[in-house]
């Protein structure tokens, strides 16, 4: 089936969902959560078994097209029914337009809280990220902020007006190689993450660090973390009227490498066990030094020394040893390798925040 027919059906379904939003519980939910209905492509899938299917059939769409678009499916008794019923809908787009929907049930409703429409010829959930509606194709210079779900995408979009960034979510699936590769192909600059401030959220940030730095397109780019209060995500902050707080946190994001170091050194301090602290520093430098953006390395040395209770020169020496051990081994007859200098361990100072608004740069909070 031609992609144009499938996309036309999805566009028609999106228009129908949008028309059904006003007066629905879904619209009330957006109001309660302080999320403007225009910040994402929101809609409402009616509760009837085949309301959407019947509407699109009346517009001339064939059942084969509606099934191929993930809008309709067979019931257990063989009848055609709507794939989404009684749900708040959010349209997922690619560069050419709508490709799928992710949808939330009502509070206390049946089934999973969020579901996606089925895989189609246009869309697979492991390849397309949901982004906010300020542009179907985000600017290559805008800072992508990875978050958990559609509500977080909407919250960040709401709080980040005049900040040159956009939110992106894998919508219920883990961050895949395809997601990362597409992100890196589109953006040459920094990438940020914004997960819950609780332990699962911290572990999600650690996992993101590992995934993002392992892909071929990483190239030593800056990775940042938007730190959130424990147990709260971006949508929670906006819902309780703390959109300004979320905005401040977006602007003052810090290097993700620092959070990674804190997670990996939890409970280790030289005052309790100096040998263990040195070993931890050696392991972190060996694991992460080459992944650090050059502008953050000096600050990372300071941060690691403070976290572990070590003198800065001691950590700096660990870096020098790492650089020396990582240098290519030359033959005895070849030229002498360049002497390792402490300067290698002290690159440029940490720059201002990458989250500068499009007007004036904010003051960076030092951590």
TrEMBL record:
<dbReference type="InterPro" id="IPR037068">
    <property type="entry name" value="DNA_primase_core_N_sf"/>
</dbReference>
<dbReference type="Pfam" id="PF13155">
    <property type="entry name" value="Toprim_2"/>
</dbReference>
<dbReference type="InterPro" id="IPR050219">
    <property type="entry name" value="DnaG_primase"/>
</dbReference>
<protein>
    <recommendedName>
        <fullName>DNA primase DNAG catalytic core N-terminal domain-containing protein</fullName>
    </recommendedName>
</protein>
<feature type="domain" description="DNA primase DNAG catalytic core N-terminal">
    <location>
        <begin position="27"/>
        <end position="129"/>
    </location>
</feature>
<feature type="compositionally biased region" description="Low complexity">
    <location>
        <begin position="351"/>
        <end position="367"/>
    </location>
</feature>
<dbReference type="GO" id="GO:0005737">
    <property type="term" value="C:cytoplasm"/>
</dbReference>
<feature type="region of interest" description="Disordered">
    <location>
        <begin position="325"/>
        <end position="367"/>
    </location>
</feature>
<dbReference type="Pfam" id="PF08275">
    <property type="entry name" value="DNAG_N"/>
</dbReference>
<dbReference type="InterPro" id="IPR013264">
    <property type="entry name" value="DNAG_N"/>
</dbReference>
<dbReference type="GO" id="GO:0006269">
    <property type="term" value="P:DNA replication, synthesis of primer"/>
</dbReference>
């Amino acid at each position: 089936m031609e992609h144009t027919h499938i996309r036309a059906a999805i566009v028609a379904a999106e228009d129908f969902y949008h028309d059904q939003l006003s007066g629905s519980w879904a619209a009330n939910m957006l109001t309660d959560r302080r999320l403007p209905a225009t910040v994402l492509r929101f809609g409402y899938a009616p509760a009837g078994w085949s309301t959407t299917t019947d509407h699109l059939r009346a517009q001339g769409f064939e059942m084969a097209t509606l099934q191929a678009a993930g809008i309709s499916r067979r019931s257990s008794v063989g009848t055609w029914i709507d794939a989404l019923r009684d749900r708040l809908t959010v349209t997922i787009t690619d560069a050419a337009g709508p490709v799928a929907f992710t949808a939330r049930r009502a509070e206390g409703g049946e089934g999973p809280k969020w579901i996606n429409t089925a895989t189609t010829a246009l869309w697979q959930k492991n390849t397309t990220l949901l982004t906010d509606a300020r542009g179907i194709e985000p600017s290559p210079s805008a800072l992508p902020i990875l978050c958990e779900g559609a509500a977080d995408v909407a919250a960040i979009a709401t709080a980040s007006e005049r900040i040159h960034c956009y939110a992106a979510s894998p919508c219920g699936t883990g961050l895949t190689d395809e997601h990362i590769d597409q992100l890196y192909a589109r953006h040459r600059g920094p990438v940020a993450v914004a997960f819950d401030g609780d332990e699962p959220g911290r572990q999600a940030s650690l996992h993101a660090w590992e995934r993002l730095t392992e892909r071929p397109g990483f190239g030593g780019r800056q990775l940042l973390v938007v730190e959130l209060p424990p147990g709260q995500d971006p949508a929670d902050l906006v819902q309780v009227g703390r959109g300004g707080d979320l905005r401040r946190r977006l602007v003052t994001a810090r290097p993700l490498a620092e959070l990674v170091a804190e997670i990996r050194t939890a409970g280790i301090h030289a005052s309790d066990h100096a040998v263990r602290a040195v070993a931890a520093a050696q392991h972190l430098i060996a694991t992460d030094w080459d992944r650090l953006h050059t502008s953050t390395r000096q600050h990372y040395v300071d941060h690691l020394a403070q976290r572990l209770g070590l003198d800065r020169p001691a950590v700096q020496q660990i870096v020098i040893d790492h650089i020396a051990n990582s240098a290519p081994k030359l033959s005895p007859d070849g030229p002498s390798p360049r002497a390792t200098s402490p300067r290698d361990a002290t690159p440029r100072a940490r720059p201002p925040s990458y989250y500068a608004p499009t007007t004036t740069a904010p003051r960076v909070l030092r951590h």
